[in-house]
Amino acid sequence: MSSRSLKIQRPQSLATLVTERIREAIVSGEFTLGEKISEESLAETFDVSRSPVRDALNALQFTGLVEIRPKRGSFVFNPTILDIGQLCEYREMLEREACTLAMRGSREALLEALKALFDEMASAHKNGDTRRYAALDTAFHKAFFEHCSNALVQDAYLLVEARLATIRTVLTAAKKERREASYDEHGEIIDALKKNDMARFEKVLKTHIHRTQAVAVERLSEPDSGGVYQKPDR
Amino acid sequence: MSSRSLKIQRPQSLATLVTERIREAIVSGEFTLGEKISEESLAETFDVSRSPVRDALNALQFTGLVEIRPKRGSFVFNPTILDIGQLCEYREMLEREACTLAMRGSREALLEALKALFDEMASAHKNGDTRRYAALDTAFHKAFFEHCSNALVQDAYLLVEARLATIRTVLTAAKKERREASYDEHGEIIDALKKNDMARFEKVLKTHIHRTQAVAVERLSEPDSGGVYQKPDR
DNA sequence: GACATGGAGATTCCATACAAGTAAAACGAG
DNA sequence: CTCGTTTTACTTGTATGGAATCTCCATGTC
Fold it and tell me: Which chain A residues are within 8 Å of B55, Cβ to Cβ?
């Protein structure tokens, strides 16, 4: 008996489906940063009424993917350089803590998961599949949270995960030299954790995140590259 | 010329007002833990339609105050002992980090704010005003986040703040012996921070939060005390 | 030309009606 | 009485229309 497709899929609500669809569109770069996305146009595109779209936009606002300006409209988030700095500061803090928890609670499972993802990254890296590499990068860092056994820490990461993934896809994934360094650092992270060398882990993590930040900021500073929709933020 | 009331207050949306009202009702104990709160009944009480109530419940779900079970109804959160453990673990981690950031960025402002709140706590403590003491306790810990200069860390705290405040009001505020110890610990925290002794700060914080946890858990274990609405959780 | 005024268009916000799903009571067979 | 089925009440999920309000542009005044 095949193990998959046994779990029945409950009929999801339209609002949930629409939420996922919009999230994916933003993360994949289908919508550009700062773009206006009105309830009505989305409802038309998905051929549903405005109600579930409204619910979806409200939900996405909490993950920071969408900014709703009352009575004015909804917009894809459009991070400033300052925003990216805060995202990275927050991310560094949270990943450090989540990993510490995970190493305490389920060290083996974590290491195994990281190793598996790292192997996949190797192949994506070799084949130059930037999209896939970005997705695996996202999964790698998410693994800390999946094994940290505290649902709230996971929620705290959900708060920024989608934004980070978007930045990866839209701003930093295309940079080849970053991918090179990034790949090595992931290896170093695993190595440090294997040896229980948390000090080194923290150091590598910091370096790793700072590089991401630098690349994103640099990319943001060249206004007419990468389909970034520049417009006054308010 | 009086300095206040110059800033115009934008008319808030009904959804926002309703959200605040429900939040307050839960935090203050007006609704009991686990109580069912349907869209329709709330709409009736506030004399609005279901739309803004629906938006409000969705928003409150993100702060964990409300659990929405699809097609079944909405319920005030009802933490298990395990939930409280996770809340406290999360809280300890986040307060530690926020305070570290605040001490780096705006040490003086933080200390001043803490001192002011501590003085107020002294009077509330002396007068046996448990409600007020609980509110000041909430404000004291929130101060770390107001001065940490990272909006995301603040958001991460919003994720649990209301739940913690509710637990304080409903489960732990009434315990006199806890208030005694709690008061002293707040003083110790200020003292440690004044001396830049972060190791001691972390230790006191840990003790402080663990005591809160113990009291809440104890209270939760005596089922028929404190208006806790016991019912099967699913 | 600078600035105020007015109105058209676009968009959300809220109310309401209906559809669909869930839980629990009522019922009936054994 | 027990078990399984049907029915009923209740609650949320979705669609849709209209009110409110914001933006932007055109027009007019000085």
Answer: 58
Whether B72 contacts chain A with CB within 8 A: no
Please indicate whether, in this complex, the C-beta atoms of B59 and A58 are within 8 angstroms of each other: yes
pTM score, two decimals?
0.89
Angle at B27 between CA B25 and CA B29, to 5 degrees: 70
C-beta atoms of B90 and A156 within 8 A? yes
Angle at A33 between CA A27 and CA A37, to 5 degrees: 90
> Do A150 and B86 make contact, defined as CB atoms within 8 angstroms?
yes
Q: Give the DSSP letter string of A167-203.
A: HIIIIITT-HHHHHHHHHHHHHHHHHHHTT-HHHHHH
* Portion 104-163 of B in contact with A at CB < 8 A: 150-153, 155-156, 159-160
Which of A59, A62, A152 lies closest to B87 in CB terms?
A: A152
Q: Which nucleotide is nearest to B51 (CA to C1')?
A: C14
Of the candidates A172, A201, A171, the one whose C-alpha atom is nearest the C-alpha of residue A187 is A201
pLDDT tens string, chain B, 234 residues long: the values are 444 444 556 678 999 999 999 999 999 999 999 999 999 999 999 999 999 999 999 999 999 999 999 999 999 999 999 999 999 999 999 999 999 999 999 999 999 999 999 999 999 999 988 888 888 999 999 999 999 999 999 999 999 999 999 998 898 877 777 888 889 999 999 999 999 999 999 999 999 999 999 999 999 987 654 444 444 443
At B74, give phi and psi (nearest 5°): -110, 145
Domains of chain A plus CATH, in order, are: 14-76 (1.10.10.10), 81-221 (1.20.120.530)
